[in-house]
Input
Amino acid sequence: MSSEVKFSLPIPKQPLEILLPFPKQNPSEHTIQLLRKLVQKILDHKEIYSVTYSPVLCPVYKEDGGGNNQLFTIKPHWWRNPNGEWEWRDGQRNPENARSQGQAQLESVSKTIHTLALGIRHVPDPDLKQKSIERIEKLLRVFFVDIDTRMEPQVRFSQCHPGQEPMKGNECFVIAIRYLILVDQALLVSGSLINQGLLHQTKESFNEQMVWMENSDQGMKAKNAEKPLWYNVILASHRQFIQGDTSSITLATSSFNEWFTKHPIPQDVFAESLRHDNKRHKCLFTLEPLFMLASLTVPLHHEQGISDGMKKYLRECVEYVKDVEQGPIESPLEDDIRYMARVAWFERILYGRNGQGERDAEGKEEPSGEGWENEWSARMRVMWGFI
Output
């Protein structure tokens, strides 16, 4: 693609979901009120998710490792030319490649389970709690356990090249499954209240995924990629859920230290991100797993949090991304207001509740929705209070 050609990114209806470290234990009363409304809305809608409900299922026959239970996703930046050939357009998402919707099913079930789990812990309503437990159990059973609707833990057909025959996934599968981190968090929050047999079966599914990630060719490519951050975060998060803090801390700490050794200054951290035409987006997408990985280096609810050295490193990275200019396809819609609204999430993690929050006339903390169509989504308003 010519560097002189510019394409505009569409403005999302709300910020993309920003995956955050384990939610804090003492949200404000206002946050709990927002959470109650969101939980009730979920319970009222009664939606259930499965990769088998996707409108486009895995086209590879079961005898070749495919089948309806596979998470099937297409690499988003490939476009078909008038001559029928496929070309890669940096940063431009082809809406046609999102039609499979397997990743959308996974993201929806993960966010829903996570929200319900927070409601179980923090909303003082016995009826709402019981209904949330029952809904989580149903969601887990359908998406991860029942043979007809479960997602195969080995995601061999995630991030397929649309023109490849036969189709097969690649090392970017970690991008598609990263939302499973929310399920790990949710079941660490509410697992003691969930049917223990079902919880065990869910852990077995996640353990299968870990084994596949650690031993398959696809997993090894993700581990040895230029940026293995999401790979290490997912493994450490799964270990925290299945095996406990000790195992996850060992992996997260060694992974973070290895990354730091190779990328000691922000210029090194974001060198790959700055090569892209949507470099602001790529920089924030590098910050996200860095924050997640750092949080996994300490036990849950650790009073002191991450080390001072890690805080300094992350702070330098956040300050660096503030000065990143728009990429060729990010101008003019990726403006400073819109960009800095997302940077504020990472600042809030660093500086705590007294840092970057805004307060309305009644003194309630709210994120700024300025620069975003329809302002912030209900879920992200809730999650702001759990940082």
Remarks:
- The CA atoms of residues 121 and 190 lie 7 Å apart.
- Residues 46-244 form one domain.
- The radius of gyration is 21 Å.
- Confidence is low (pLDDT under 50) at residues 1-8, 353-357.
